[in-house]
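My current task is to audit a protein record that another person submitted. What it holds is a sequence and that sequence's fold in token form. Thanks in advance; the entry in question is below.
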Amino acid sequence: MAVQGVTGGVEASSDFLKSFFPSVYESKVAFKREGGGGSPYCTFDNQTLALFTSSLFLAAMCAALPAGYITRRFGRKTSMLLGGLWYLLGGGLNAGAQNLAMLICGRVALGFGVGFANQSVPLFLSEMAPFQVRGALNILFQLATTTGVLVAQLINYGLRHQEGGWRLALGLACVPALLLTLGGLLLPVSQVEAWRALFRRAHRPQLVLSSLIPTFQQWTGLNAIVFFVPQLFAALGAGADATLLNACIIGGCNVAGTVVSLVLADRAGRRGLLLQGGVQMVAALVAVAALLGSQLGGSAATVLPPATVWATLALICVFVLAYSWSWGPLSWLIPSEIQTLETRSAGFATAVFVHFFMAFLLGQTFLGMLCAMQWGVFAFFAGLVTIATIFVWFCVPETKGVPLEEVYPLYARHPLWRRVIGDEAAAAALKAHIQRAEDHAAVGAEGGSGWEAPGLGRQPSYWGDGQALQLSKKARVLGPFLSVPG
């Protein structure tokens, strides 16, 4: 995942801009030469440059649904291997790029790798992890991502004075790609389930949550800010070295916040982190908007004093910390654990598709939004985070410590989702849920392993027989609550 963190620093490289985006390079030089002539918000406003970044997300979006099918049909392991191979191809094309077309083709290949890896890895972790520590183990995926971004930013900083250093920075994406490919060969095979039922009324909560959680996650603005932070600080008057150093500091905050989430997700719960993180993010974004608005105004052409640049950096770090222990990791964890057996692969494929579709839209439009809305873009993101926080309060159930096999009763008991799925659908689904638990308990009593899923054959067990019996008892208790006959 380090490839996503390399891009922003590479785009700030004069050598790279001269080779592939000469008009942006000339705009950057003119802004500095004229002592801030023109709007600082529009220095990097170029749709082709935005396409270089967002083409990865467009490709990942296009890969998400085929990756969902391959993950279901051939298993998570196969999907991871394909992701690693696409990464290798993309890294090679980017490192050896001779023209813009070759450069973007490399980004597209990397995007396919991102799509396959992001479809399979969180799902694999959710299925293989004991439910007591599922949150922490799944967040290791996000920790690896943020660490990769930080390493990429440090690489950009280390290569900042080396001619052609951008080629090495982009080519180093092949290293984690090789590790993913080789590591995938050693993994066990996880369970396989069918793609259907996601659009039935009984599973509408999974469809809505799998679509809206990644949508809100992208429109917090974090990814746009992190990927374009070198351009942002360059536009605000920071020097080349300071620009890349600021990106490294923000990357370090991203890693630190993810470690906090790793520790707290299975203690404080998912909802608590999302709500607290949302409030902190809104406060930080409003403060950034107020600071830049007071210093730069609407269209002032000036370079900010160093103290203001550092204050902006500190506020962005507060925002990044909140995001990285809330929406960052949990927007991958929650969609992977809210699915039933019937919707797991399809539901998470939907989440991955929406995630990268929104990432593409944001990546393609952020520089234009920054130019048009100026400091107001931060207030815009603050408004969206406020809506996201309200959505969490009313719509997201707590999944801390809940085995995957016990997820559906959460919707049946939820005051909103119970109305959405209807009593009849909830009763039928819970009855099937009870039967599966009892089938598993019966198999355990006979000394076997696994249980029979309708239309899917025998499924492997990921919990012990004692847990199965306990699940059966819990399901029976919930039955009368939903007026389930029998």
About this structure: Residues 422-481 form one domain. Confidence is low (pLDDT under 50) at residues 447-486. Residues 155 and 169 are 6 Å apart (CA to CA). Strands lie at 451-453, 457-459.
